[in-house]
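In full, the data.
>
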Amino acid sequence: MRGQSQKVGSMKEQTLSDPVRPDQSALAYNATVVSCRQPHSDLLLLRVRLDEGEFVCDPGQYTTLALGGWEPRIDRLRTTSPAWQNRLIRRAYSVSSPILDEQGELVEFSKLDFAEFYVALVQKPTDDPPQLTPRLFALRQGDRLHMGPVAHGNYAAVPVQPDQNLLFVGSGTGEAPHNAIVTERLRTGHRGRIAVVTSVRLRRDLAYMEQHRQLEDRFDNYRYVPVTTREPENLEPAHPGYVGRKHIQELYATGELFERIGWEPSPDDTHVYLCGNPAMIGAPHHDRTGHFVFPEPPGMVELLLHHGFRLDHPRRPGNVHFEKYW
């Protein structure tokens, strides 16, 4: 895979394309499922290969996956709305990456002949249930779908020096783009500290943890810190290992995060990457006067800016980068 960074885009739950009849699916689909693995029933690692050409992608970028509204769902619900029946249902996904190959060596992202996607099952017991992920979870090896042939986004486009420190913060499957970025940095001899912090509900949601632990054993400058919010030690005060329920932004505000990663990020020498839940990111918007307006309670962006970090912008490069999933 190769390519250049494009304009960043937010992760959409689902969008509609032009109508396509089911008998046109052979024309609509351009890729095949190479493999699919479910760490558990609500989590999917999906590898997809284009039929023709090279997938154009840099570490940290995203592309789209799409299936027809006529395809089966794992919950066996039938699409009754005409808006979905004869259309491709699309969603943007960050491109993830295996970290180690079968020989235990760091993966060279540019040489992969497939794209890996890290997908959480979206379920809502409503009259308008999610349309795409219940269909993605019904896929099996050899099945067909549509994948955007060119990736987009500039999440990791800002140049980083080999001695600078890197802090990657993700929630849920938000660590997906971090896998490719981190692997490439380590593979090319990055000398600065690298920490990946991932917040999930349960430890079983950490599909890449074993590979990250192997990186820790191999690289002195690397640290992987999982944070859970729904395990017994998070919810039950009587639990012998009780630590409470804390989100990443709380850990940063109190300084506990620095203890866990083993160093304190500084705006003078650190780039921070944020991907996942908008509440964790806390991205601001501009009011009528052009000033930032931050959501409440504060997210990571506001906390970082308060400590002297700078928000990355195409016209004003900074050291805080974020990618929203919805």
Q: What stands out?
A: The mean pLDDT is 89. The longest strand covers residues 31-40. The longest helix spans residues 176-187. The chain has ten helices and 14 strands.
